[in-house]
Design a protein that fits this description.
By secondary structure, the protein is mainly α. 47% of the residues lie in helices and 9% in strands.
Length: 93
């Protein structure tokens, strides 16, 4: 995704190109993973996702949604190319 973002920004300088990774978001998919995936996932991965839940480390869906909305409304070519990792940590004005 980062490579595509950089290439797009290079080839189309008038387009804002931003790659996002919001972290592990607390969705129904995460709940399903914890309840059904133990038999099919390898143990370290399953434990990792379960521990994130147990330690309240999942990101509320509203957090990345707010940042993505701000990016859609306010980002311009000066933000391109950029990669946001755990984008909920960023406060955009």
């Amino acid at each position: 995704m980062n490579s595509l973002c950089r290439t797009l920004a290079s080839e189309e300088p008038t387009i804002t190109s931003i790659a996002l990774r919001p972290g592990v978001v607390d969705t129904e998919m995460q709940a399903q993973l914890r309840s059904e995936a133990k038999q099919v996932m390898n143990s370290p991965n399953y434990k990792h996702f379960h521990k994130l839940y147990e330690n309240s480390k999942l990101v509320a869906p509203e957090q990345p949604a707010e940042v993505i909305t701000n990016l859609l409304v306010r980002a311009d070519t000066k933000h391109t190319p950029v990669f946001f990792y755990h984008l909920f940590l960023f406060i955009l004005i």
